[in-house]
Each structure stands twice: as structure tokens, then as C-alpha cells.
Amino acid sequence: MDEHKALDYALAVMKNLNLIIILYMGILIFNCLWGYVQENSALEFLSRIDTIPPAPWKIPVIAVMTYSGCLLLMGIRGLGGISLISKVAVEMTLCFLVSYLLGFGYNGMLLLVLADTMGDIPKMKRQLPFAAVICMLYLVVDFDLFSIYHHIIPFDTYLEYYQRDSRAALLGILNVAASLNTLIFIIYMVLLVRTQMNEKERIMSLNAQLNTANDELQRANVRLEEYARESVKMTETRERNRLAREIHDTLGHALTGIITGIEACTALMDVAPEATKIQLSAIAEVARQGVTDVRRSVKALRPDALEKFDLENAISRTINEICTATSAEIEYICEARLDCFTEDEEDVIYRIVQESITNAIRHGKADYIRISIRREQEMLKIGIKDNGIGCADIKKGFGLHHMEERLSMLNGSLSYDGRDGFEVKAAIPIRWGNGGTER
């Protein structure tokens, strides 16, 4: 049987059992008073008591009606706060009136009120005050205590109407019923405590499952973020390859046209000078269009890979090639490890060095360039300074804009100064921690 159904069943049994006990006691009192009237011995009964009893039929009827009102009030659920206090106070008052009508011969209805109240209140901290008050009333509902202040006919006095053996049997039946009510109350409370403990365990289990689900959700979010980053990287790679193919096709087409046109001019130069001029004009147009197409593709393309060499070798080879092809002297000083960076970081470092060298020679007309790479705490510092003509009014072109864009993707920074030659300073956060020691 479900625990909640068992609680409802036990409470229903207590309600019906108390109704039977009240009805049983009321009938005994009614039979006693009616018997004295029928036997004309009412004066003898009145001489043993301190107050005049009500009409015989009133005691069982009023007691049952009062108890029925208490049961009706118990059927009201979901009350809280002041309303619950009022509800319990009225129930206790009605039970007290029933016990008063029955000569305080039975007060088991208060156990029913206590059981019903404990079932209405889910939290133990709120249950204790109500339980204490009801238990206190249960203990003090006694004939000897209240007879001091008010004349009451005790239930035992009513039973004196019956013969000794009959009286003992009737009291035995009442005591058995009262004990059974107490036993059912104990069973109800045990079931209630067990149910509340199970509910607490179930809530704790649900909280644990919720925490587990949250952990799973966080791990899923991490995996989703990783997938998103991989997806972005793959998309960038596909776009990069597409643009590379576009440049290849555009430049290949232009160069093929130029080569073919030059060969034609070589053949026509001696025999048809005018035709050669026309052909050269066409070649110039093809070259201009090719340059335009390549510039358009380069502006959209962000090549970010070092395909053949590691970063340090790539930088060294680039410097050597520039020194061989030009008269510039390049001093290269590297005081940090360059083998612990990701591909994106390597690309940015390489392109900054490459672009700075190109700008120094092409725009600054420099013949001396100093490149330094070092680590300061958790930052990689790159400095490139030349002895060129400099630039007092710097207008960012594609090169500087491209370097800033690349560095911003790594949370880095770029600064430059053109007052004395031209100097570029870049700072990149080192994300691999203490694994790369300075050398």
C-alpha cells in the first residue's frame, strides 16, 4: 500500500473509531438518565451530583454534532499561517466541548486533532509548537481539574446506574476502544515520520540528480563550445582555401595572358610594329586587371599558416632572403621560446615580423632593421625598429590594419611610432603558462 494512502486510511479509522466511542458514551449517558426517569429514581441520582443534567437526548445529539463539526473542519486542507492556527484552535475547542459533554470520560479526540495537524504541516519546525500545545491540552483535560471551577457530572457517575458486572464490562469496552485509538495514533505517527523521511530522501536524491544533470549540461556546453570553435576554424579553412584558389586562378590567368602576349609581340616586333603596340596595350590592360583582381582577393584573404618550417626557422629564412635580395642589414635577437605557440599565434608573430620588414624597406627606405622578441612575465613582446625616413602623420594602410586585426583576435595590442625611423611594438598574451621558460 502506498504510504500516503496508508496515512489516509489510518486517519479515517481514527475518525470513525472516535465517532463510535462518542456515540457509545452518549448512548450510555442517555440510557442512564432515561432509566432514572422511568424508574422514578431521579431524586436519588440528583442527590449524588452538584448540577442538573440536560435532557437525556441532548448529550449524545450535541456531542455527535459537535464532533461532526470538528470532522468537517479537518476536511479543509491547504491552510497555512494564521488560518492554520485558527483551524487548530477551533478543532481543540470542539473536542474539549465533546469531552465536557461526556463528563471528561474520554479525550482521545485530541489525538485525532494532533494527527490531522501533523499531516497538514510538512515541516518539522512548524509541527513542534502545535504538537506541544495539543499534548498539553490532552494532559490537562481531566475531570478533577475542571470540576474545581465548574460543576460537572463525571462519566463514572452516569455508569453507577448499571450493575457492577455490567458497569465493568461497559468500561472494559470503552477502555479497549480508547487503547485502540491510541494504538492507531501511534501507527499513524510512525507512518508519518517514515513518509516525511522518505520524502526528504527523495528530495535529496532529486537534488543530487539535478546536480548531476547540471554537471552533464555544463560538460555538454563545453563540448558544444569546442565544436563551435572547431566549426569556425573549419569554416575559416574552407574560406581560406577558396580564396587561395581564386587568387591562384586569377593570377594564373593574368600571367598566362601576359606570357602569351609577350611571345606574340616578340614575333611581331620586326614585321608589324603597329600591331606590336596594340598587343602591348592589351597586355598592359590584362596586367592591370590581374593586379586589381589579386588586390581584391588579398583584402579578403587571411592566410594564417606556416606550412614548411617551424616559427623560428621561418622568421630566420625570411630575414636571410630579405638580406640577400636587398642591401638592408637586419639584426635579429630572440630571447624567448617560439616552439610552444598554437598555429594561430605563430601565424600572427610571423606576419607581424614579415609585414614590418616589408614596410621598412618599401616605404621607409631603411637599410638597417632591428628585430627583438622577448618574454616579459606572461606576455610576448615583439619590437621592430628601422632607420628609415619615418612618418610623422601615420595613416593606417592595409598592413597596419591587418596586424591590429590579427592581434585583437589573440587579445594582443599594437603600437607604432614614426618620429625617428619607424618602430612597431606588439604584445601577445602567452596562453601556455609556465611551460615555456625563457632562454
What does this molecule look like?
There is one protein chain. The protein has 439 residues and is an alpha+beta fold. Helices cover 67% and strands 8% of the residues. The protein is built from 13 helices and five strands. It has a five-stranded mixed beta sheet with strand order 1-2-3-5-4, with helices on one face. The chain is rod-shaped, with a radius of gyration of 51 Å. The C terminus is likely disordered.
Quick summary of this structure?
With 439 residues, the protein is of the alpha+beta class. It has helices at 3-38, 42-46, 58-74, 82-101, 109-120, 124-140, 143-146, 155-159, 164-268, 273-300, 311-325, 343-362, 398-409, and strands spanning 329-334, 368-376, 379-386, 413-417, 422-429.
